[in-house]
Every structure is written in C-alpha cells, then in structure tokens.
Amino acid sequence: MENTSARTEAETALALLMCLAREIPRLSDTTKTGKWVRTVFHELPGRTLGLLGFGPAAQCLAGMLGGFGLKCLASASVPDSKAAERLGVRLVGLDELIRESHYLSIHLKGNCNGQPVLAAAALDSMAEGGIIVNVSDESFVDTAAIGERLENGRLAGYGVCLAGPATDHPLYRFANFICLPRAGS
What we know:
alpha/beta
C-alpha cells in the first residue's frame, strides 16, 4: 500500500515545479489584467531533476516524472540503490546533484543544525536559470541567498511549503516565488 503522505508530498512538489516551469502564477496575473503575453517555457525533456533526499516522497515523485523525459539524480544520506535502479534514478553525491540539476526538489527530514544545505555557494553551482522546490523545512535553504538569486535571475523560481503563516516572508516580493501551506501544518 502506498504511503499517502509521501504521495501528497510528491504531488505538491510536482505542482510547484510545473507552476514555476510554466510560469503559471505570472501568466495568470498578467492575463487577468487584460494583457496577452506569450512566453517560452522551460522545457522538461532532456533536463535534469535533482532529488535532495530519496525517501518515499522523492521516490514517488521520480515515478511520476517518468513520462516527462527528465533525467533524475538523487542524493541521500542513506541511498536506496534498489529503488534508484527500479525508477531509473542515478545516485550521486550532493555536490554533483546540485551542479547537474536544472530543477531541484528538496525532500529532507530532520534538522539541519542551523546550517542550510543550500547556502550561497551551493546555489551558485546550480545550473543558471534553475528552479528549486522545497517540500521540506525551509531551514534547509538560505532564504536570503535564494532571494538574491531570484533577483539577479540566477534562479528562475523557488517554490516552498511553509510550516505556518508568514505575512512578512522576505520572498513575497518576487513574482517567481510561490508558496503553499505544508500539508499537516
């Protein structure tokens, strides 16, 4: 039987990724103002999705993405080589994962001990114009560094599931930032 919370997390990550890759929030807002804007979307086939963490939700997401033509990489503290082989996912180290990924989906559990996994240097090694979705705790990323890269165009988008309401989140000012409440929060 499939883990329902893992499937929900995977579906949320997929929704955030698709909204950012297809610029749905921006295009919706623009269309509502009466402007008709055509855009060139991020093409998924041939691109690489990095899964930071490879537990049940990340594995479910990898299974869902099979038909999209994405190459999948995963980095995990306890790699599941049987699941990776079954899903066509290549297990790599963290540095290679970040460096090779056009899209990055964060599925980490636990505590980062105050040291974000995705700090400025790691973000700078990611493919330019990349998209990050974070369905884990926001402490795994350096939010200020994300904001700088959204502003200068180094990142094309960031989507996150927030643990609670935040009326003054530092990334709200970016059109290429989207957020949802975390399931169960």
